[in-house]
């Protein structure tokens, strides 16, 4: 079966002269590639990036959400969320509505077009991952988390601003 993880089938290449470090790098590259392919599919099918889709979902689920609260909910900086909102507003998917009580602030709502685009958008890659991950035993979840956190430390990636979404690109990337 093409693309099947050999390690899950007990078919490691370790004994065949390939070093375990190489296998790890291959596994990491496969993860990056899977994220890239899904990001392209999401963009092709809906015209949205992962952060844009999560922002739309959050706006839909939280009545009268402010940009500050949205940034907190999606775990992105306020500056990044502002760029995302500018793009979504320009496309007519999100509307900024002035607060009736405080004219200096506003809240966000989905436009009719935004609700339509959201209803037709494919599921995010992390949704399927979370479903599968939650089916693992607690000790397996903890072991995976610990190992991946260790990899992040080894790659000097601990201080990098990141949100709980599987999307390629930096948070300052213009495509948000």
Notable features of this structure?
176 residues; mainly alpha; Arc Repressor Mutant, subunit A; 7 helices; 2 strands; 55% helix; elongated; disordered C terminus
Structure description:
By secondary structure, this protein is mainly α. It has helices at residues 20-46, 50-61, 67-74, 78-90, 112-120, 125-134, 138-154, and strands at residues 94-98, 106-110. The protein has a two-stranded antiparallel sheet. Helix 3 (67-74) packs across helix 4 (78-90). The longest helix has 27 residues, at 20-46. Residues 1-5 and 169-176 have low confidence and may be disordered.
Q: Provide the CATH topology of the domain at 18-121.
A: Arc Repressor Mutant, subunit A
Question: What separation lies between the terminal Cα atoms?
Answer: 35 Å
Question: Over the alpha carbons, how many angstroms does the gyration radius reach?
Answer: 19 Å
3D shape:
elongated
* Total helical elements: 7
**CATH fourth-tier homologous superfamily of the domain at 18-121:** Winged helix-like DNA-binding domain superfamily/Winged helix DNA-binding domain
What is the overall pLDDT average? 82
Give me the strand/helix succession. Answer: HHHHEEHHH
Strand content: 5-15%
CATH class call of the domain at 18-121? Mainly Alpha
CATH architectural type of the domain at 18-121: Orthogonal Bundle
Multimer state: single chain
Helix percentage range: 40-55%
- Residue windows where pLDDT falls under 50 for at least 5 positions: 1-5, 169-176
Helical/strand content category: mainly alpha
- Side-by-side strand order of the widest sheet: 1-2
Largest sheet: 2 strands, antiparallel
Number of strand segments: 2
């Amino acid at each position: 079966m093409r693309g099947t993880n050999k390690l899950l089938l007990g078919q490691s290449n370790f004994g065949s002269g390939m070093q375990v470090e190489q296998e790890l790098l291959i596994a990491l590259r496969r993860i990056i590639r899977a994220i890239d392919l899904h990001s392209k599919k999401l963009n092709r099918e809906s015209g949205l990036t992962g952060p844009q889709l999560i922002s739309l979902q959050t706006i839909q689920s939280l009545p009268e959400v402010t940009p500050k609260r949205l940034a907190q909910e999606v775990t992105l900086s306020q500056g990044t969320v502002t760029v995302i909102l500018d793009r979504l507003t320009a496309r007519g998917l999100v509307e900024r509505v002035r607060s009736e009580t405080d004219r200096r602030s506003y809240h966000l709502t989905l436009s009719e077009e935004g609700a339509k685009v959201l209803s037709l958008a494919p599921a995010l890659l992390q949704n399927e991952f979370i479903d599968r991950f939650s089916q693992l035993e607690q000790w397996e979840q903890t072991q995976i988390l610990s190992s991946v956190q260790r990899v992040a430390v080894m790659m000097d990636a601990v201080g990098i601003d990141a949100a709980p979404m599987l999307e390629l690109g930096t948070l300052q990337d213009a495509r948000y």
